[in-house]
Every structure is written in C-alpha cells, then in structure tokens.
C-alpha cells in the first residue's frame, strides 16, 4: 500500500481483498471513524470487521479490512438474513404479525394491460440488477449519479421496501434489534390511553381508497405499528399524518420493517415534525420561503406574503405529498425522499410552484392560489405505475367541465433535480439552523403573549411590568439550565402544558427572584420568608411553581388591600407554609417591648385616653359579617406561629423611614394579641373543668355588654381557682383578631396601604439578576476549594 502520511485527513475502506477506497479531506474525520465503528459493531454480520492501525506508523490513515471476500450473497447477509431470522422468531411468538408487504396480497389492477405494466416493471428491475452487479447490492452500495436517475424513474415495487430500508439506514436498526418490535407489540397490546383513542379514530381514514385498508388485515397491521411506536416513543406518541405515512410503508415493507422505517422518518429524517407544535415542519416552511425568494424571485415579488404559500405547502412536508397527490405518483416522491432526504421535498415543491407560477401570479387571493395548486397536484399521474390510477384526497377541487392537462410524475421529478437540485445537504442544514432560531423565537413570543393575555385580567400589575416579570422569570429558568446540574424533578419547561404553566422554577430560583422583586424584604429573614412563600404557592407539592402563581403573589404584595396583605402574611406563618422543620421556627422572639402586663387602655400624646375595647369588638363583628361564607376558614394561629409572624413584621419595618413609630405600634398590637390569646386559652380550658368549676365561671362571667376576649386579664384568686394550671387550653389567635388589632394603629395601616411601585425593583433586577447568580455559584464553590486545599 502506498504511503498515505502526506494525505490530508484520509480514510481507506477495504471492501474486497483486491479493492479499497481512499477518502481524503474529510470533515470531522475522527467522528466519522467512531460512527463507522459503532455502526459496524451494531450490525450482527457473519463476517466481523476489524479496525487496525498497527501495521503502519502513520496513525492518521485508519484502514477498515473485511476478513473475507464480500460476494453478492455475503452482502445480502447484511441486508436480510438477520431480519429474516428475527422475523421467523417473531412469527413463532406473535403469529399475528404480517410476514409480507400488503401490496403483495392486495395487488390492484390498473387501466393498462398486464403485459404493458409488467414489461415496464421488468425493465426497471433489469436496470437495477445491472446497477447492483456493478456497484453492490446492500449497505456497501455506492451512491452514484446513475442510482439517482433510477430512483427518479421510480423504484420497482418488488424492490421498493428493501431499498427504502437501505437508503434510510433502517436496515441497521432492524438487524441490531432482533425481536424488539414483537416485544413492543406484546407490551402495548390491549392498553388504552389517549393515544390509542386517537389512533383508533384515524385508522379508517388511512388510504381508504386502497383495498389493503378496507379490511381488518391492513387495519390491524397499521394499529400494531402505530401503537408500538407510541409505546416506544411516548414523547411523540401519535400525531396526525403518521397514519398516512405508515399505511404507505406497510404497502411495500413487511410489518417489522415498516416499524423501523417509521422510526427512521420520525426520529432522524424529519426531526421535530411529529409533535403538537411541529417545530421541524415550521422550520422547513421558513427555509422553503427563502428558497422561493432565491429561485423564484418573480413569484416571491408578486406574493407579498409568502407565509400563505408556506401554509398551503405544510401538508407537502408533513405527509411527503401522500395526502395531496395520487398514491401511485406520491410513492415516487417517497422514493426520492428516502434517497435524498428532505432535499427532495424542497426541490419538488419548487418545481410545483414554478409549473404554476403564471397562474399563481394572476390569482387574486390565497383561496384561488390553493385551488390552482390542488388542481395541479391532483392531475399528476404515473404512467409507468403497475397499479391503477386514482384521485387524491383533494379531487373535489378539480370538479370542472374542461379537461385539465396531466403532468407525469417522472417528468416533474426530473425537472426538480435539473432546475433545483443544486442545493447540498450541508446548505439545507445551514438554512435549517438559521431559521430554527427565528421559528423558536416566534414560538416563545407567542407563548409570552398568550401567558400575558391569561394573567393580565387576574392582576393589577401593568402589562409592561408583567412583560418584564415574565422575562425575569424565564431568564431565571434559563440561567439554572446552564449553571446547575440536571434536576431529577419533573421537567421545568414543558411545551405540552398550558401556556401560563410552561416555564416553572424551583425553590432556589424562586428565592432569588423573591429577593430581587419582592417589596417584603426582611434582611437576613428574607430567605426564610421566600421559603415559606414557595411552600404556600406549591399547591401540588411537586417542588415547582409556574409564572401565574408567582405573579398572583406579587400582585397582593404590591397592589393588594391591607386585609389581603395581612391574610397572605398570616398564611405564610401557618402550615403548610410554616413547618416543624422551618429554619427559623424554633427560635424564640425575645423582646422587652412584648409583655402581657401592658394595659388595654392607651394614652394619647395630650393625655386623653381612648378605650379600644368596644372599637375592636365592633371591628371583629363587622369582619365576621363580611366574611365570604363559601371561603374556607383559616385555622387559628398557635403561639409559636404567632411569634414567627411578629418576627417577620419586625424584620419588614427595618430601615423604613417610620421605623420607630412602626416598632412602637407593633409592640402595642403584639401585647394586645398576646393578651387576647391568653384570655382565649383560659376560656377554652373551661370546657374541661368540672361542674363546680363551671359554676365558678358563671359567677365570674362578664355581662353581655362585655366581650370575653377583651376583659381585663388581671387574675383574681377566684380566677386562679376557676382556671387551674393543669386545665389550661391552647393559646391561639385568629386572622380576624390580628387584622382588627392592626387597624387600631394608624402607622401600621399607612405602612400596608401605601402605594408601591414595582418599576424600580424591575430595573434593579434586570441589572443584578446575573450577578446574584454568579455570587451564589462562587459561594457554593468556596467550600469545595477549601476541601481541595486540605
């Protein structure tokens, strides 16, 4: 062998003992080598391939050697022996699986004479056999200009299924997974879900004009393939148009082969086509628009909005022309697709538009343009097809009196290759990448607008501020995607969910946003309050919350009335927001301002005194009357929870301009509430006392004009006897008590009712969101650095 040390990026592939092929200037050569090795390991061939570089000092030119002569029948082992063996075992386990292609059983008779049809088919078979002899038959077959011409003429029906397997590389999956399809069929058999219901609904809509799908034989095979694929790939499951494609695959391939062809199409050849957003199809529609501007500038100039043409042509891409062209013609398009990929659909679409450019330019609206294209496609015939000629699904569009000219599919495909076949696969992929960004951004903008449309009526935050909040919320999600390890929780971004619930954040992300935009910042206590708020908003306890819940909470903080804000604070200090394991739940609140010995009569600065007892009693009664009967009553707050509630209030007043007045006011209210709780505690304990104790209570009970909640708390000897120490009940206060008590202090009312502007917080958040994340990451990495230094 000649020295290859001077060749740039070479690979030498030896397929016979006397024949080798040398490839140079290969892009990503190392990746290609690894891919080839992996592929050869996957295929269960009788003659393994070894990879050897030890015989040469030049390590840059790997050589693939076959350990034996690769005759025609040995090549055929790679193609069908493995699949035949697996299919025999499949039939033993699952006798219901179809052992042959449906077209072999349900052969239709056409309008031409049988001799004429068969002679044309035999000519094609002879041409293919000549090509096999010269260039190989199976996975080692070389792709030449001659084979492209043979494909454009239409693959013979007897070879169509096998060549589809080879061109799509589904033959590798088939050989590498013996018995896989049969297991899927058994596992999915009899299971009912939303997907199976959709499949059942579409089974009889799949090629209803073909006899193979007018009886249970074809319908059952179609059901098994679609259900097995939905079981294999629940992310895709089943989408409309998959039934039409699978029906055609079953006509020309055995059932297991049709399954692997469907896998190749859905997962490799048409990525992101078969989902509810059809992102892949929309990307290709955008690419198609650019190709129209490049190759058909006059048509593009006349059609100001090319999106109309793109929407018309969407079914061309989704069904590979199968739903809008007569079947005997459309299968030739599928031949080209399996050989050239999506490039064949692009160039054929351009050829269709060019053939109708004059009529399209004279069309007055989109409806007329649709009529022109549908009528043209319905009259595309395949003169060489051995089957009958038939109309497409859109035959009703051509229901006119005058005959319409017929176009031969072979001529149309030939024109598409000659006029528009200069686009390489690399160029197509480049255009796809460019337009994918634009399409995805369009989807994100649509999602954003739909979220805002849902949320705006529910909150008082201005739409422009809501838009900023949505961007912050989404950015927090994206930052965590790049900066944090994958989380085992349910997906944080699920396009299948309602628009307002697509993006979700966890507790740590929420804490960062809370610190940035919440008006209730409490210094070191902020993180604890954020944790409690997150637990309150996490209704389903999946450790994730959506944008809608986040905004609703902020709306109360910024725009809620005082009673709404106090109610939110109250709920943040009772379960489930406050837990036994709360970081701050066990720390006592020690403050000299709190004392139950304070009087319930407060003095004004001028020395006058006002008794708030009657006022508080009336407030509680009014609140009780206004309370919505349908609303579930909140549980009362225990003393431990009340202490945490007070601590939050003290933290919220820190650095407020009215800090001193607020501290004095909350101290007064806290003292009042502590006394209320003690009175309630003694009252609740009376129910467990003896009858004598009850009589003592009646003797010391206040008059009806008084309220037991507001009676003087100074104990008398009689009280001590009536309420023994061991009979005391639980200390509790209610939301109504707290709200009524806070209303007695004007400084507190002013604090909770003062208008708040979210804009400064949003401006600050846009500047500091990234730096806050980097600061957190650096703090997390410091302990690791210390450990490594040790």
UniProtKB/TrEMBL annotation:
Biased composition (Low complexity): 682-696
InterPro entries in the cross-refs: EF-hand-dom_pair, Rab-GAP-TBC_dom, Rab-GAP_TBC_sf
Gene3D superfamilies tied to this protein: EF-hand, putative rabgap domain of human tbc1 domain family member 14 like domains, Ypt/Rab-GAP domain of gyp1p, domain 1, Ypt/Rab-GAP domain of gyp1p, domain 3
Record keyword Nucleotidyltransferase present: no
Compositionally biased tracts (Polar residues): 700-711
Protein's UniProt keywords contain Coiled coil: yes
Ranges for domain Rab-GAP TBC: 154-341
Spans through the membrane: none
Chain positions covered by the region annotation Disordered: 682-727
Classification via PROSITE patterns: TBC_RABGAP
Source taxon at top rank: Eukaryota
Protein keywords: Coiled coil
Coiled coil ranges: 609-640
Protein name, entry field: TBC1 domain family member 8
Protein species of origin: Galeopterus variegatus
């Amino acid at each position: 062998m000649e020295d290859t040390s001077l060749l740039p990026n070479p690979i030498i592939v030896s397929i016979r003992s006397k024949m080798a092929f040398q490839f140079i200037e290969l892009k990503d050569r190392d990746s290609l080598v690894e891919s080839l090795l992996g592929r050869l390991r996957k295929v269960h061939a009788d003659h393994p391939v070894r990879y050897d570089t030890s015989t040469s000092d030049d390590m840059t030119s790997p050589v693939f050697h076959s350990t034996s002569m690769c005759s025609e029948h040995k090549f055929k082992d790679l193609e069908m022996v493995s699949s035949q063996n697996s299919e025999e075992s499949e039939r033993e386990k699952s006798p219901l699986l179809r052992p042959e292609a449906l077209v072999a059983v349900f052969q239709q008779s056409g309008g031409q004479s049988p001799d004429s049809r068969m002679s044309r088919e035999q000519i094609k078979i002879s041409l293919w056999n000549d090509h096999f002899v010269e260039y190989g038959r199976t996975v080692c077959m070389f792709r030449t200009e001659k084979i492209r011409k043979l494909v454009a003429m239409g693959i013979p029906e007897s070879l169509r299924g096998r060549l589809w397997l080879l061109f799509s590389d589904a033959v590798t999956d088939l050989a590498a997974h013996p018995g896989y399809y049969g297991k899927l069929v058994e596992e999915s058999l009899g299971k009912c879900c939303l997907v199976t219901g959709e499949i059942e609904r579409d089974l009889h809509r799949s090629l209803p004009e073909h006899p193979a799908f007018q009886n249970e034989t074809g319908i059952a095979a179609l059901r098994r393939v679609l259900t097995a694929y939905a079981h294999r790939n629940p992310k895709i499951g089943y989408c409309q148009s998959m039934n039409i494609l699978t029906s055609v695959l079953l006509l020309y391939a055995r059932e297991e082969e049709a399954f692997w062809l469907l896998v190749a199409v859905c997962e490799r050849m048409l990525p992101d086509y078969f989902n509810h957003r059809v992102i892949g199809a929309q990307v290709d529609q955008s690419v198609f628009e650019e190709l129209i501007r490049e190759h058909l500038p006059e048509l593009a100039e006349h059609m100001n909005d090319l999106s109309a043409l793109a929407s018309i042509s969407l079914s061309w891409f989704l069904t590979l022309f199968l739903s809008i062209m007569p079947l005997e013609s459309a299968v030739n398009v599928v031949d080209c697709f399996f050989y050239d990929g999506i490039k064949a659909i692009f160039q054929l679409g351009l050829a269709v538009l060019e053939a109708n450019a004059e009529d399209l330019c004279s069309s007055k609206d989109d409806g007329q343009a649709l009529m022109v294209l549908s009528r043209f496609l319905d009259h595309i015939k395949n003169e060489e097809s051995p089957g009958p000629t038939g109309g497409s699904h859109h035959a009703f569009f051509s229901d006119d009196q005058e005959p319409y000219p017929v176009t031969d599919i072979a001529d149309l495909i030939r024109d598409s290759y000659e006029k528009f076949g200069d686009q390489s696969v690399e160029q197509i992929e480049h255009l796809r990448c460019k337009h994918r960004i634009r399409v995805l951004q369009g989807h994100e903008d649509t999602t954003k607008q739909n979220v805002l449309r849902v949320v705006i009526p529910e909150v008082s935050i201005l739409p422009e501020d809501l838009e900023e909040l949505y961007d912050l919320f989404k950015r927090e999600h994206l930052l965590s995607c790049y900066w944090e390890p994958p989380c085992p929780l349910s997906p944080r971004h699920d396009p299948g969910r309602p628009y307002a619930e697509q993006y979700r954040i966890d507790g740590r992300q929420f804490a960062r946003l809370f610190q940035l935009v919440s008006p209730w910042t409490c210094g070191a206590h902020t993180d604890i309050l954020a944790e409690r708020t997150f637990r309150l908003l996490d209704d389903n306890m999946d450790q994730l919350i959506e944008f809608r819940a986040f905004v609703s909470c902020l709306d109360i903080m910024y725009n809620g009335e005082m009673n709404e804000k106090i109610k939110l604070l109250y709920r943040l200090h009772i379960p489930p927001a406050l837990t036994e394991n709360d970081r701050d739940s066990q720390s006592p609140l020690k403050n000299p301002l709190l004392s139950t010995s304070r009087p319930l009569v407060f003095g004004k600065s001028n020395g006058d005194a006002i008794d708030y007892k009657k006022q508080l009693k009336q407030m509680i009664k009014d609140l009780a009357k206004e309370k919505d009967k349908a609303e579930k009553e909140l549980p009362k707050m225990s003393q431990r929870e009340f202490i945490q509630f007070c601590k939050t209030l003290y933290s919220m007043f820190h650095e407020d301009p009215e800090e001193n007045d607020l501290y004095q006011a909350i101290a007064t209210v806290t003292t009042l509430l502590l006394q209320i709780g003690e009175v309630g505690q003694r009252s609740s304990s009376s129910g467990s006392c003896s009858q004598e104790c009850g009589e003592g209570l009646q003797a010391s009970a206040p008059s009806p004009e008084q309220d037991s909640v507001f009676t003087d708390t100074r104990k008398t000897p009689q009280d001590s006897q009536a309420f023994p120490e061991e009979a005391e009940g639980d200390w509790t206060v209610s939301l109504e008590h707290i709200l009524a008590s806070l209303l007695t202090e004007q400084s507190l009312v002013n604090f909770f009712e003062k208008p708040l502007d979210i804009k400064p917080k949003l401006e600050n958040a846009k500047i500091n969101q990234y730096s806050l994340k980097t600061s957190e990451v650096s703090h997390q990495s410091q302990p690791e650095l210390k450990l490594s230094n040790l």
